[in-house]
Amino acid sequence: MVHFTIGIAGHIDHGKTTLTMRLTGMDTDTRKEEKEREISIETGFAHFKLPNGEGVGVVDVPGHERFIRQMIAGVAGIDLVLLVIAADEGVMPQTREHLDILRLLGMENGMIVLNKVDLADSDWLEMVEEEIRREVKGTFLENAPIVRVSAKTGAGIPLLVDLIARHLSKGKKKESEPVRLPIDRVFSVKGVGTVVTGTLFEGRITPGMRLRLLPQDKEVRVRQLQVHHQNVERAAAGDRTALNLSGVEKKEIRRGNVLVEPDFLESTTRIDLKIKILDGADLVVRHRSRLFLYTGTSEVEGILLFFDREEAFPGEELYGQVLLKEPVAVKRDDRVILRRPTPALTFAGGRVIYAYGKKYRFRPETVMEMRKEDLADPEERILSRLSVRAMSGRELYKDLTLPPEQVYCYLSSMVAEGILFSTDKKIGPETYFIEASLGLRQMERVTELLNDYHRENSSQEGMKRSELKEKVGKWPDPFYLWLVERLIQEGRIREEGERLALAEFTVHLPEKLAQKADEIYLRMEREGQFTTDWPTLVAEMGLKPQEGEEIMAYLIHAGKLKSLSEKICWARETWERSLSILRQRAEKGFTLQEAKDILGVSRKYLIPFLERLDREGITTRQGEVRCWRK
Asked: Average pLDDT, stretch 394-413?
């Protein structure tokens, strides 16, 4: 199984493809045009085994200036780079540009291969090596070994293989992280269906696995899996992989798309970056200048935005943002390459500090915010988000672009330390979290809102849950429910059916309405079953409709009134007397007409009364007859 990938980079015609063939026995120039022109146009892929049996994939990237796009796509995701320099020519323009790109992509593990040593004498080789050391000074290759080989004759190849093995032993793969596979080729095979290829950046893939295609946001399923043309049951980070996919057509996919695990990364068109302008870039980089951004196998046009300056100069490091015409899928700490469209030139690279940038204001404070995000550790980044709003575990790991289990580990620790509140003891994707002090402030806000409501509506049992949620603000439903439940458990508020009230609150009426309430109740007792409908009664007592609603709510809460409908209420004594008479006179049940004859009231009062009996479960209807429930 192949678990490491090395890249072979360098100037055109310095022998990269011949070296690849010498190492692997495979010719990566497979296209007719490549054969005819004797140059690599597309990235070539091959593989071989080290003496210890470890599998190594080889990426032969194009050296010609016109094919820099393919070169960038080829080196993305490799573990070790071999910078090939021909002994008879030395350092050339594309050697320098490839070295710049490798530096900007954050490469740290590399070697220098001095090829074609059969074409030069020892003095010349010493001079070329001195030149190479000057060129790589200050780069990740400054202390790298220079291996003299002849890909044509095979001289030095055993030593090179031995050094490759030693360098790869230092490498670490990202098998435990969520799957991410940038697609570099897509085609259709008769009888098989859609096939995509790419180097698996992170994670493991197995047949039957469900993945998500970005930026299309389309779910696909892995039907078959190959690593270097061999059917396998698992591909791991570093493997050169071919996937037979179901659920998607060839025409729906293109180079630059990315396969990820469901529910992980999202596509983005605004990326916050720490930018490094190349020392040798012969240009001033201006705010809002056009560019091409390269990440993985994607090449997307965009605009470069600064927030505290109008231009940047060679050698500068600064914070900025790229606004893209099309979405891409990136993670924090991914490396990107920035190239000028005309004339084509690599002028800078960037490290992603936040994948989902926003539309920021042009001011120094924006850059300070970006710097803070860049320097923050994962716990600080989690805290910065949860100090503003409640977020679920799923929202957090997607926003942070970190593996879910890693985020859960931080969350568990922060909850245990009391830094965060969580809506569930079990930490998971549906659990919501909030910074503790913000959570406490929201609890205080709930009690303040209820207190204000009681002051204005003292006759009401409490505020409706839906009304309270609206006033609390746009918080996620699970968090709002947890907030209310916690206040209830702490004994600070209580439930009154669908209403919520402060624990110490008691329903009461203002003094001027309390007297009117007594008068209304005495009148209703006198009128009995033929009490005046409520709106008329309120008007006759010289009250406003709102005051009437307060009195009704108070009398119902106090148990003095029984509401039959919106307009009809009975005194409780009237209700209980009517119910008792009906039970005694119609023990086995009754029809509407029989109830009318027994109680002697009109349908205006009778129908609401009987319907209330049904709602309370005192009676149940069986056709035209109402029966008593036990």
From this structure: 95
Pairing relation of β-strands 180-182 and 258-260?
antiparallel
Q: Going by C-beta distance under 8 Å and a sequence separation of 6 or more, which residues neighbour residue 285?
A: 277, 304, 311, 312, 313, 347, 348
CA distances to 23, 47, 78, 439, 540 from 4, rounded to whole Å, are 15, 10, 8, 47, 90
User: Sorting pLDDT into bands at 50, 70 and 90, what band is 566?
Assistant: confident
Q: What is the pLDDT of residue 34?
A: 31
**Beta-carbon contacts of residue 167 (< 8 Å; ≥ 6 apart):** 80, 109, 111
Query: By three-state DSSP, how is residue 448 classified?
Result: helix
Residue range 357-386, pLDDT digits in tens: 999 999 999 999 999 999 999 999 999 999
Contact present, 482 and 529 (Cβ < 8 Å): no
Q: How far apart (Å, rounded) are the C-alpha atoms in residues 100 and 6?
A: 18
Secondary structure letter of residue 42 according to DSSP: S
Which of 599, 606, 603 is closest to 577 using CA atoms?
Answer: 599
Buried b (16+ CB within 10 A) or exposed e, 488-517: eeeebbbeeeebbbbeebebebeeebeebb
Q: Could you tell me if 115 and 85 are in contact, meaning their C-beta atoms sit under 8 angstroms apart? A: yes
Instruction: Tell me which residue of 285, 393, 399 sits closest to 349, measured CA to CA.
Output: 285
CA 498 to chain centre: 35
Alpha-carbon separation of residue 8 from 34, 82, 83 (angstroms):
17, 5, 6
How far apart CA 622 and CA 206 sit, in angstroms, is 60
CA 315 to chain centre: 34
SS3 625: strand
Of 558, 606, 545, 389, nearest to 479 by C-alpha is 389
Q: Which amino acid is at 374?
A: D
Distance CA 44, CA 61 (A): 6
User: Cβ distance 338 to 321 under 8 Å?
Assistant: no
Euclidean distance between CA atoms 55 and 164, whole angstroms? 12
For the segment 583-590, the average pLDDT, to the nearest whole number, is: 92
Q: Give the containing element (helix H, strand E) for 325.
A: strand 317-328
Quick check: helix, strand or coil at residue 391?
Answer: strand
Compute the mean pLDDT over every residue in the chain, rounded to the nearest whole number: 88
pTM for the full predicted model: 0.76
The closest of 350, 296, 346 to 321, measured between CA atoms, is 350
215 upstream amide cis, omega within 30 of 0: yes
pLDDT in tens, 452-469: 999 888 888 899 999 999
4 contacts 55 by C-beta, under 8 angstroms:
yes
Question: For position 28, what pLDDT does the model report?
Answer: 54
Say if residue 590's pLDDT is above 90: yes
